[in-house]
Amino acid sequence: xxxxxxxxxxDRIRSDWDHAVLVCRKCSKRLDGxxxxxxxERLAKALRRHLSLKKGRKAAVGIVEVNCLGVCPKGAVTVxxxxxxxxxxxxxxxxxxxxxxxxxxxxxxxxx
Length: 112
Ligand code: FES
Known about the structure:
- By secondary structure, this protein is of the alpha+beta class.
- It has helices at about 25-30, 45-50, 95-105, and strands at about 20-25, 60-65, 75-80, 90.
């Protein structure tokens, strides 16, 4: 591991993420899919696949499922763009993933 320093606050670990996107896990579970080519995938997985992202911290973008964000929209998934955290998105099933990637400032179809 690439950690340095003795004190806890000085420890660092590198990641290749240049964006972090938070996707509500509970919204995703409630929709039971709704995204991807057949509409059977959860949003986080469908978006990762759509953008051909690697896994974990080696990915160019971190798309992370998180606990309920307290919005709990009906028929949509709450999504937070870490770089624009004042403006959350409510993403409906079947949403165009290129459009979503654009709204999140993620280049569509990027590798990594
Ligand atoms: S269930 Fe997703 S924001 Fe609460």
